[in-house]
Structures are given as C-alpha cells and as structure tokens.
C-alpha cells in the first residue's frame, strides 16, 4: 500500500486546518442539544441566559455562594479536591482550545478576503451565524468558570478583589456584547481563549505537581491581551460615535453595535488593564526588589495587597478578627519566614 501525500488535506486560507472543523462541531452540537449548530439563533429574551434578570441572578448567586461559603468553611477543614481540580482545569483547557480553533476557522477567510475593518465593524464580517453560536457558548462557559472561585473557597484560599471582580465582570461583559450585537467581540474573545488555553494548562500541570517556571509570563500575556483589546474596542467605539454624532470628525465609516455595549466594553476592559498591571508590579517587580525568592511571590503579593483582599466577617474567638485559609490568626504571618505554603490566586 503506497502513501500518497496528495491525499493529505493541506491548510488553505479558506480551510486553515486542512480539514473543516465546523461539520464535526455541527454534529456534536446536534447530539448534545437536539438540533445542529447551523439552526441556532440567539434571541434576546428567549434564549437561555439572554436577559438582564437572568444574568443578574446568576451574578448575585455567584457572590452569595462564594462569600457565604467562605464563612461556612471557617468551621471546617480545607478540602483537597485535587482530582476534581485537575479535571476542571483540563476541561477548561480543552473547551478554550476547541472554541479558539473554531473561531480561527471562521475568521481567517474573512480577514484575508475582506480585511480587518470589515471583520470588526460589519455584521457580515463579525456577526455571522456561526460566530454568534461561538459567542454564546463562550458566554455560557463564563458561568462554568465560576467553579474556579468555588475551589478557592473549599480549599480555604484567600479571595482577592481582582479574582472575584474579574469573574463576575467578564460574564457581564459577554452578556452586554451579545445583546449589543458588537462585531468587534471576536477580538477580546479569541485573545481571552488563547490566554485561557495557556493559563488553565498551567493550573492543570500545577495540580499534577509539575512546577512550571513561566507563570510570570501568563500575567504578561494577559496584560498584552487587554492592551490589544482596548486598541480594537476604542477604535470601533470611536468609529461608531464619530460616524453617528460627529460626521465631520475623521473616521473610517460606520461600525456595528449598540452604545451601551461600547461603554460597557471600554469600561470593563480598561479596569482589567489597570488591575492586572497593578497586580504584575506588586507581585513580580516589588518581590524582585526585596530579594525574596520567587517561590513566595504569590503569598508576598497577598501580604502587600492586604487591602485588596476581600474582608471576612469577624468571628468571635479569632485573634484580631482575622483568620487565614487554615483558620489560624493572621495567616500572612505564617509565611514571613518563607516556610509557609505557596498560595495561588487564579486570574482569568
């Protein structure tokens, strides 16, 4: 039997991976939902989790569960949950990778044949039916990612403002962009998926006991992601507002999307950039100056950023009214000699 290279499907602009991924996804979607992905339509008020009431209820539930759970866990020992933790991170790595590949398959031909402006500012470019399916699945995945925080609670790890704010705000951001029909949505989503493939793979390997040296560069990748996001989102918003209200100002034409979605995107993404840059400098730059070993970076960051750590409800009998993740008074003190366990704070 001879092997013919001509039978191997080679990547092309219209078929970036050589084979077409969408037909396989279409069948998998039908097996799971009961109808093919080609038949999916996002209808505000009808599609599950497509109303502000549903989104708000999910966010309120998230914060009630994690903060309430943290108080409840004060009476119990920290849970290990290592197997579930590994499974959770492996699933999120896989889901992020699959969604990213599907986005690439849809976007490469559009970008090549019609250009970047068409892809970010035209519904025919950035709001096609297949892309809307992927936008919606990415949005639902944000609620699954809430389990990240539940693991922190059950393992009695500190809850930081950056972590809890980011999870809730990202779900809200995805909701506003779906409702707002913003064609530029694929830019922050694809970059976020790329970051998540790297980040959740890191946490999966970490749970397996494998020490990885490039954790610092995940934060750098996240910061770069938000910078690129803001360039595109501010450009799309500027184009929309100038073409709508200030046609005399220089602009490239019209841009699809609703005004509330533009303000939401600019506001939330800008806050991310500020918070992640602050986290980077406190975690890595200051640690380097103090000469502390890299292995204590995470805990030292929590010590330095104690005002950013979300306060706990005081419980009678605890020294100074504070307890660390293991129930001892002032948990930060246990790591001052560098012998305490490393605390990992998850940022997505």
Automatic annotation (TrEMBL):
Stretches that traverse the bilayer: 55-73, 85-104, 185-204, 216-240, 260-282
Mode of membrane association: Multi-pass membrane protein
GO MF assignments: fatty acid elongase activity
Coiled-coil boundaries: none
Main localization (coarse): membrane
One of the protein's GO biological processes: fatty acid elongation, polyunsaturated fatty acid
Catalysed reactions, as listed in the record: an acyl-CoA + malonyl-CoA + H(+) = a 3-oxoacyl-CoA + CO2 + CoA; a very-long-chain acyl-CoA + malonyl-CoA + H(+) = a very-long-chain 3-oxoacyl-CoA + CO2 + CoA
Keyword match Translocase: no
Subcellular location(s) of the protein: Membrane
Disordered: region residues: 314-348
Keywords: Fatty acid biosynthesis, Fatty acid metabolism, Lipid biosynthesis, Lipid metabolism, Membrane, Transferase, Transmembrane, Transmembrane helix
InterPro entries: ELO_CS (IPR030457), ELO_fam (IPR002076)
Segments of skewed composition (Low complexity): 316-338
Similarity comment: family membership: Belongs to the ELO family.
Protein name: Elongation of fatty acids protein
Species the sequence originates in: Talaromyces islandicus
